[in-house]
Amino acid sequence: MQTDPDFSLDEVDRQILAELQQDGRMTNVELARRVGLSAPPCLRRVRRLEEEGIIRGYHAELDPVALGYEITFFALVGLESQKEAVLSAFEGMVREWPEVRECHMIRGGGDFLLRLVARDTAHENALTSRLTAAPEVARVQTLQTIRTAKDAAGVPV
Amino acid sequence: MQTDPDFSLDEVDRQILAELQQDGRMTNVELARRVGLSAPPCLRRVRRLEEEGIIRGYHAELDPVALGYEITFFALVGLESQKEAVLSAFEGMVREWPEVRECHMIRGGGDFLLRLVARDTAHENALTSRLTAAPEVARVQTLQTIRTAKDAAGVPV
DNA sequence: GCTGAAAAGCATCGCCT
DNA sequence: AGGCGATGCTTTTCAGC
Q: With a 7 Å cutoff on the CB, does A30 touch strand C?
């Protein structure tokens, strides 16, 4: 399950990855047909890509609004300190918040960029307050999404 | 394929969504076992969730590094104008850039938050330059990701 | 809306090239 | 490495509750 830097992907592997990124539930028979292989070697390649960790998993993409999350927003959070213990503690905290979907440490010292979901503006405000009130948090700037022109999970293949 | 606001999800539906968000290739038999149904009604529910647009699709999650994308970064882009034609033109442009994975318009006027991937720092600099040089772009602030503590696609279920 | 059986299709294995 | 054929599951439909 570890990415092997010595492992090289050929053109067929890349085609397989592109197809499965677009439709993760495609049957192996259909996938094999598209990449021009018979089913067994195609399945062997998929299994190898999974074992190498190049395919990390398969996920259904759900509609946030249908699940009650009307709002997606981002937060730029600055901490009081750049000590590793403080940074790790903050990361550990937001990892436990289900509404925090992503947490990226930003170059420049003690800053994080978070992506969050909220049911409504009251929920969003509550989350922002909880962030502001959290230990070692110096400042919180929220970036509210008005509309999303592109939202492609994954990477170009 | 449209989300119906009148459509309500019961507890079993939510369980199905949670399971498929976590493992999108789970067999219907296994899914049915986990939610306490036999296979046919479970499959009918999944089909309905797909038709309602609550399940938008299924995707393999790929390792960006294995595909040659070492860097994920964000860019805050400010435009010269808030005219709708200018905003749409910018969105149309970045939609065509494969390295731009997300483009969100931010409340406050003429700003966008982009998530991008790059093969290396040279590629990242080239992308930033292309953004800066694009029509109607007033300013670009890049937020480079040092490390990612959490990266959960999807929503809490 | 669920169950259970049955047909068709798929995943997967061993062996061969 | 890829392909062929066989086997056991899975999916999917359909009748009946």
A: yes
Question: What values do phi and psi take at A57, rounded to 5?
Answer: 165, 180
**C1’ C7 / CA A43, Å:** 25
d(CA A36, CA A45): 13
Burial A136-148 (b: 16+ CB within 10 A, else e): bbeebebbbbeee
Question: pLDDT 10s per residue in chain A (157 long)?
Answer: 444 444 689 999 999 999 999 999 999 999 999 999 999 999 999 999 999 999 999 999 999 999 999 999 999 999 999 999 999 999 999 999 999 999 999 998 789 999 999 999 999 999 999 999 999 999 999 999 999 999 998 999 8
Distance of CA A96 to the CA centre of its chain: 16
- What are the helix (H) ranges across A10-68? 11-22, 28-35, 39-51
- Number of inter-chain CB pairs under 8 A, A vs B: 229
Give per-residue pLDDT as tens, B78-119.
999 999 999 999 999 999 999 999 999 999 878 999 999 999
pLDDT for position A4: 47
Chain B residues 56-95 with CB within 8 Å of chain A: 56-67, 69, 72, 74, 76, 91, 94-95
Domains of chain A (ranges, CATH numbers): 11-51 (1.10.10.10), 71-144 (3.30.70.920)
> How far is it, in rounded angstroms, from Cα B25 to Cα A24?
7
Q: Report the C-alpha gap between A98 and A73 in whole angstroms.
A: 14
Q: Which amino acid is at A20?
A: L
What is the pTM for the complete model shown?
A: 0.91
- Does the CB of A24 fall within 7 Å of any strand C atom? no
